[in-house]
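Supplementary notes (optional reading)

For those who missed the lab, this is the record we used. Protein: biotin--[biotin carboxyl-carrier protein] ligase. Length: 244 residues.
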Amino acid sequence: MTFFDKAQILEHNQWLEDLVLLDTTPSTQLEARGGLANTLYLTDHQTATYGRFGRKYYAANTGGIYMSANLGQSNYEKHVQYTILAASAVVSAIEKLTTKKPTIKWVNDVYLGKKKIVGILAESGPSGMILGMGINFDIQYFPEELSDRATSLYPNQEYPSITESDLISKIWSEFRRLENLNYLEIYKSHCFVLGMTVSFKQNNHDLQGVAIDLTPQGELIVNCNDGIQRILNSGEISLKKWTE
């Protein structure tokens, strides 16, 4: 099991009342859903990981960070904002600790280059908002079907310049620091989707247009090819092409 420095993480995040370290678990989301508020559940090994829309999320046996925080009571309508805030905290933490240049794919994925390194999931649980993250820290192998779209913060045997605990500590301290600041500007400055042609499905219709901006709530504004401007607050988008 990866050594996670509980004392370090709690010292830099005094809003956390507890940190539960798990050797293995089906899902930290499930642990947090039934857990206490202001508690972080953390492991490097999950057996039944899931992401948005309940889809299975690849979790390697080694090299990953999987964590979920029970944030206490909150509003369902703020799911998008929590996801936006979390993504902003992740890119801010990575940039403060490393020389890496992460970007964001709306709404919940963090990328290095053209490959995903972090997935974020916000859900409501019985005791409040559950915010989960799966981070490819130094996973060296991905299944063939993922190898062209997933990578790690430290891929190809690159020696990590920080520890997992350094990153975890900084992500959650940035999350709380940015909470009352204009984190949307951080998000927008890293969101490579803006200005690109995107495809999506809405009301059973396949649509396409240019993503032009975000609303103050983090929803995606798209000028569609049919002349109608639409606002997306959830769902999947596909990119027509990647910028170089």
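If you only remember one thing from this example: The mean pLDDT is 91.
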